[in-house]
Every structure is written in structure tokens, then in C-alpha cells.
Design a protein that fits this description.
Radius of gyration of chain A: 24 Å
Number of strands of chain A: 0
CATH class of chain B: Mainly Alpha
Order of helices and strands of chain B: HEEHHHHHHHHHHH
Number of helices of chain B: 12
CATH superfamily of chain B: MetI-like
Distance between the termini of chain A: 12 Å
Shape of chain B: globular
CATH architecture of chain B: Orthogonal Bundle
Strand content of chain B: under 5%
CATH architecture of the largest domain in chain A: Orthogonal Bundle
Order of helices and strands of chain A: HHHHHHHHHHHHHHH
Strand content of chain A: under 5%
Helix content of chain A: 55-70%
Radius of gyration of chain B: 24 Å
Number of domains of chain B: 1
Structural class of chain B: mainly alpha
Largest sheet of chain A: none
Oligomer: heterodimer
CATH superfamily of the largest domain in chain A: MetI-like
Distance between the termini of chain B: 42 Å
Number of helices of chain A: 15
Structural class of chain A: mainly alpha
Number of strands of chain B: 2
Chain lengths: 298, 293
């Protein structure tokens, strides 16, 4: 999907990811039914967020009441109860460590590979690049069994390594940085060469700072993906001392499955960091989604 | 330092970290799973595995469990992909207009996509709860029959489909918006000047020019749906009575609940073939119908 034929004036390696420009009808007055439809959609998409907060702040009797209680009643003890019933602090620390190190490693591997593909000439370049892209075709589900056996042979099961190293290179990251380095001004490379800068120095001091927007996009998506991942850590680990937050939450669901107020509180405090990150960096997240289409539309 | 010879060698050096990761954890294992699938694999002691040729495959292809899971997967794909595609396109086109609150609506639609599936599926398990859940409460208030949702063989899958659409639609909307913004307004205006109404303008200008984007969304959502696992794990655990045991869920059961590594590996290979085949088919079908600007 990233290698389709492109018309010459529209190649992804020359055009940056399209930034959406609203069609020209400025501040169109919407007919009433579109307002109603829009409002309905916003409610459908946002209501579950509201509902989990309401449930997390209500007493067990209000939750099981009919008709449903739509307002919160300040039962903050749900939070203290839920917090005391699982090693959440440990889960948080594990998640932050795993997601943080994974992100850092992905950035490093993507910068190096992206720089090579984007600025250098070498034998087998396009074949290797195609090979890298093909890695995207192999689904995670298919790799679970063999990777489980590989990680077992490495004695990495139930460690941080099993959750970090297999994810420390990203095709998306390499692809995005290759696009970026392809459009990198040649004169800068030439100038650096004449100044006698070494290649490594050039990469880390000039190219990387200039690639900051792309790097932030990659970092956000890798961090989010690592934070939200479930199946992989669930299979590859058993003890809470190395497990991430989502696995902890699933365990909590298994043991406290009928305590809806406590469960809701746990959902709120485990999801809050992700939502804050999203709200703070919403522009970059949306830009990343646009960038994902860079190879297709281009 | 930038001499051609140096550069050539350092390029390989720069590719090594990523290539190693892919080799050890993606490419190597892809061949390894193919190898495992030809054995009656001993999960605890690989050395005791016995070669059985294609028997794992013939067993699977003649078992009703496999075909049932495939039908369930198909149900899920049909429920999420075409519906999601249609909804995402309509939403994206609506959001291409400027109106007060546009940014907020876009943010609202996108926000479920960033949430962890374990966490938000718990919220929906609660909303779908047959006794005390919100949806049945609303149905009751409207004097409509209440449903068993995730605990009913009939309604469990629609429930998971609804959750999945809620969770993932925003991403498709954003991709469609990117595609739509790439279509030149001049072309659309030209069509209008030629007397096309909105409907004709859509079918003769927007839709054909949007084909690459549509195809991209089609492929990624189909692959995503075939691989979906977490919401099935938390919401239904494949049940009730395997009413939601998709091929991916069956793979998990075989491999990590029943430790039937060989058959599970064969299933993984079949799943890979299905995914790769669908991708190739969608690409092929598009060759004729894709328009480039």
C-alpha cells in the first residue's frame, strides 16, 4: 500500500503529508437537522467518557438503580478502594519504563535507518527498503507463537526485554523519517561536509533537530501504542512486577468484575495519563494520522 | 568523512539495528511459524516434536471449528468495515465544512481511538450490562424489549462491533479528511459550473478521486478487523458458546490455552494467507478503478 504507482507531480517523497484545508464555504450556516445530527454524534462519542466518570463517583446502590442515575454523587472512596486492591503504582512504573525505553529505541533506529535510506546511495538500497516495508505485512497475531518460543529461548519471558526489544524498530518510523530526509536540502549536507563535520555529528547536531516535528509524531504514536498494548505483554509476562497497566487492568477486571464503581474508578485513573497526553498533543496526533496517509494519497 | 566509500559502508551500519530487530522478531519468526506448522510440536520440549507434514492443515480445513471461526470473523469484518467506511466518509465530508465547533467535533470523534481497548471496553461492558446497563435502561424507558447483549449468542457480536466502530472510526475519518483535502476545489467547482448537482459532483469527481484513500482505509480496516483480539478477550472471551470466537481468538485459544502449538501455527499461517490475499485482491481490483490526480 506504500509502494503504489505515483504520478510524478504527486510523489510522497516530494510532497509533505497533506494538511487538510476546509472547503471554501466559510462559516456556512448549518441547517437544523445537521446540528441535531452533529450533536447526536458528539454525544455518542463522548458519552462513554462521561458515563465512566459518573459511575466511578456513585455508590453501589445508585449504580444498580432504575431509572439510571445520570449525575455523580462524590463517592471518592471508590477510587481509594480500587487503588488499594492492586499494585497500580508498580503497573504505572512498569508501563512508563517500557513505553519510554521503547520510544527512545524506536527513535534511534528510525533516525539511523531513515537517514541511510533518505540521503545515501548503497548497493541493494531499494530491495532492502522494500523488505523493510514488507515487515508491515506480517501481523502480530501470526508472530505470537514463534516469538514466544524465541523469547523463551532467550530467557526473556516475563522480563521487560520481551516487551521492549521486539518493538524497538518501527516501519512507520523509518518510512516517515526516510520521507523527511529525502526532502532534506542537499546544500546543508554539502556545507557540513566542507566544514569537516563528521557524519555522526551531522546527524545528531543538524539533521535530528530539524526533523523534530516528525520525531515528535513518531514518539507519540509509539508511546501510545506501547502504553495501550495488551495481547503481547499478556502472553509474554506473568508477574505484576514486570506487567504493564493494561494487563493489570484486565487482571483487575477478572478479580473485581462485579464491582462496577471500583472498576470504573480504575478505568479512569489508568486512562487519565493517555487522555492528558492526547489533549496536550492533539495537533501532533492528528498530524500523525495524516502522515499515515502520506504514502497512499501522496 | 562523507567520501562515497565511507558512506556506502556506514549506510549498512545505520540499517543494522532496525534490520536485526526485524530479522530476529519478525522475518525469522515468520518462517519459524511455517516450520512449526508442519510438526506435532511439543510446547514444553521442542526436541520431542514430530514431523507430520501438512496434517495440521488438513485437520484444520476439515474441522468445523475453523470454518465457524472464519464465519465469525467474516461477520465481524462485514459489520465493521463497510459500515465504518460509509460512516467515516459521511463524517469526514461533514467535517470538511467550516462551522462553529468543528474542531471540537473532530476531537470528540477521534478521541476514542487513542484510548486503551482494555479500559474502554470495560466501560462498554458496563453500558451493555443486561440487568443494570445504560442501554437496557434506555430501552426499558422507551418500552422496547431489553436484550442480553454480550451475554446473548445473538447480540454479543453486534455489541462488540458497536464498540469497535466507536473506538476506531475517528482514525478513518481523519484519513478521509486528508484524502478529501487533496482533491482540488477547482475540479469540484468546474463540475458545478457544468451543471452537476451535489450528488453528481460527488459521484463523478469526489468519489473517483478519493479511490486511493478509500482503498487504503478498506485495507487497513479489514486487516485490523481480522486481527482484532483485545475487545473479544475482555468483552466476550469468545463466547457465549463461541458466538464471538473469531479466527484470531481461536488462534489464541489453541496456542495459549490448549497449548496445541502445531495446529495453532498452521492457523496462523492460514490467517496470514487470508490477510495477504485480501490485501493483494483489493490492490488488484483497484488497478482499473484508481484515478490519479
Amino acid at each position: 500500500m506504500l509502494q503504489r504507482k505515483q504520478s510524478p507531480e504527486n510523489r510522497p517523497d516530494q510532497a509533505p503529508a497533506p494538511v487538510p484545508v476546509p472547503h471554501r464555504k466559510i462559516w456556512r450556516r448549518l441547517p437544523w437537522w445537521q446540528w441535531v445530527l452533529g450533536l447526536f454524534l458528539v454525544i455518542i462519542f463522548l458519552f462513554p467518557f462521561y458515563w465512566v466518570i459518573v459511575t466511578s463517583l456513585n455508590g453501589a446502590n445508585q449504580v444498580l438503580q432504575f431509572p439510571p442515575v445520570f449525575l455523580p454523587h462524590g463517592q471518592w472512596q471508590n477510587y481509594t478502594r480500587a487503588w488499594s486492591e492492586a499494585p497500580w503504582l508498580r503497573y504505572f512504573a512498569n508501563t512508563i519504563f517500557i513505553a519510554g525505553v521503547t520510544t527512545l529505541l524506536v527513535l534511534i533506529t528510525s533516525i539511523l535507518a531513515g537517514f541511510a535510506f533518505g540521503t545515501m546511495q548503497f548497493w541493494g538500497k531499494s530491495a532492502i527498503f522494500a523488505g523493510f516495508i514488507a515487515m508491515m505485512m506480517i501481523p502480530q497475531t501470526v508472530l505470537l507463537i514463534p516469538d514466544y518460543l524465541v523469547l523463551r529461548d532467550l530467557h526473556w519471558l516475563n522480563t521487560y526485554w520481551a516487551q521492549i526489544v521486539p518493538w524497538s524498530a518501527s516501519v512507520f518510523g523509518i518510512f516517515l523519517l526516510r520521507q523527511y530526509f529525502l526532502s532534506f536540502p542537499r546544500e546543508l549536507i554539502e556545507a557540513a561536509r566542507l566544514d569537516g563535520a563528521t557524519e555522526t555529528r551531522f546527524i545528531w547536531k543538524i539533521a535530528v533537530p530539524m526533523a523534530k516535528p516528525a520525531l515528535i509524531t513518531i514518539a507519540l504514536y509509539v508511546f501510545l501504542g506501547s502504553w495501550n498494548s495488551f495481547l503481547w505483554p499478556y502472553i509474554m509476562t506473568q508477574s505484576p512486577s514486570v506487567q504493564p497497566i493494561e494487563v493489570g487492568l484486565a487482571t483487575f477486571l477478572g478479580t473485581n468484575g462485579t464491582d462496577w464503581t471500583g472498576l470504573s474508578a480504575a478505568v479512569v485513573f489508568t486512562t487519565l495519563p493517555v487522555m492528558i497526553l492526547f489533549l496536550v498533543a492533539q495537533r501532533q496526533f492528528l498530524a500523525g494520522a495524516y502522515a499515515a496517509t502520506g504514502g497512499v494519497k501522496g | 568523512m562523507f567520501a562515497t566509500e565511507r558512506r556506502r559502508r556506514s549506510a549498512y551500519l545505520y540499517l543494522t539495528p532496525a534490520a536485526l530487530v526485524f530479522l530476529v522478531f519478525t522475518l525469522g519468526p515468520a518462517f519459524f511459524v511455517l516450520y512449526i506448522s508442519l510438526f506435532n510440536w511439543n510446547f514444553l520440549n521442542s526436541a520431542l516434536s514430530t514431523f507430520v507434514g501438512l496434517q495440521n492443515y488438513t485437520n484444520l480445513l476439515t474441522s468445523s471449528t475453523f470454518w465457524h471461526s472464519l464465519a465469525i470473523s467474516l461477520y465481524f469484518v462485514v459489520g465493521t468495515v463497510p459500515v465504518g467506511l460509509f460512516l467515516a466518509l459521511v463524517l469526514a465530508m461533514a467535517l470538511m465544512n467550516q462551522f462553529a465547533g468543528r474542531g471540537f467535533v473532530r476531537l470528540a470523534v477521534f478521541s476514542p481511538y487513542v484510548t486503551p481497548v482494555v479500559a474502554t471496553s470495560i466501560v462498554w461492558i458496563w453500558i451493555f450490562n443486561p440487568q443494570f446497563g445504560l442501554i437496557n435502561g434506555l430501552l426499558h424507558m422507551a418500552h422496547l424489549p431489553e436484550l442480553g447483549w454480550l451475554q446473548s449468542q445473538r447480540w454479543a457480536m453486534p455489541g462488540v462491533i458497536f464498540y469497535t466502530l466507536w473506538h476506531s472510526l475517528g482514525f478513518d475519518v481523519i484519513i478521509f479528511m486528508a484524502g478529501l483535502s487533496g482533491i482540488s476545489a477547482d475540479l469540484r467547482e468546474a463540475a458545478r459550473i457544468d451543471g452537476a448537482n451535489r450528488w453528481q459532483e460527488f459521484w463523478s469527481v469526489t468519489w473517483p478521486l478519493l479511490t486511493p484513500t478509500t482503498l487504503f482505509v478498506l485495507i487497513i480496516t479489514t486487516i485490523g478487523s481480522l486481527q482484532a483480539f483485545t475487545q473479544f478477550f475482555t468483552m466476550t472471551a469468545g463466547g457465549p458458546m463461541s458466538a464471538t470466537t473469531t479466527t484470531s481468538y481461536l488462534l489464541y485459544e489453541l496456542a495459549f490455552l490448549f497449548y496445541r502449538t502445531g495446529p495453532a501455527a498452521a492457523l496462523a499461517v492460514l490467517l496470514f494467507i487470508i490477510i495477504a490475499g485480501l490485501t493483494a485482491l483489493q490492490m488488484l481490483l483497484s488497478q482499473r478503478r484508481t484515478y490519479y490526480q
